[in-house]
Amino acid sequence: MRVVIAEDLALLRDGLTRLLRAYDFEVVAAVEDGPSLLPALVEHRPDVAVVDVRLPPTFTDEGLQAAIAARTTVPGLPVLVLSQHVEPLYARELLTDRRGGVGYLLKDRVANVAQFIDGVRRVASGGTVMDPEVVGQLLARHQPPLAALTVREREVLGLMAEGRSNGAIAAKLFIGDKAVSKHINSIFTKLGLPPSDDDHRRVLAVLAYLNG
């Protein structure tokens, strides 16, 4: 599985490269700034890109902007954002693009190596991985449309947006699979969104609604 890394800190960039190689990923490029990222993504067309948001020269949102631009040139390019910061505007733009896997994890909240590697693989396979803090910030900006949801439905919605399956949601909330399905159908009805059994599509549908 081919990977492009974008990280300005040399030690972290080297650490990510060594870690991914240890788990049988092929790191085809590891860049340190925004201007280098877009050409690397377009040239190598990796199976997944692991991208920091804030890269040189301005340390604002070069990484995320380059990833979004690359997905225009390479539709469906899987992108996992690994950052210390949440950029809600660009996060929504990236996450509501229905083509290819996407993820947004905060560096200091990745609990262990296995969690990170699992996230990389899930995004590469077309899935969605989201940090609960990112989900919380996106949902917090859209409280009025969510007012019709019950407390339990909001919990389910947040877990859906993290990319969790019905079974994972049931285990987290200690409820049955049928109860989860019932809550999800109710959420889609209240938000005016068509139900879907596709885990990736339903997450993006929710985020697309929140973006609107």
From TrEMBL:
Keywords from the named record: DNA-binding, Phosphoprotein, Transcription, Transcription regulation
Entry annotated with the keyword Transcription regulation: yes
Domain named Response regulatory: residues: 2-122
Transmembrane domains' residue ranges: none
Positions carrying 4-aspartylphosphate: 52
Residue stretches making up the HTH luxR-type domain: 142-212
Domain of life: Bacteria
GO function terms (MF aspect): DNA binding
Short name of any one Pfam family annotated for the protein: Response_reg
Stated name of the protein: DNA-binding response regulator
Organism: Actinoplanes campanulatus
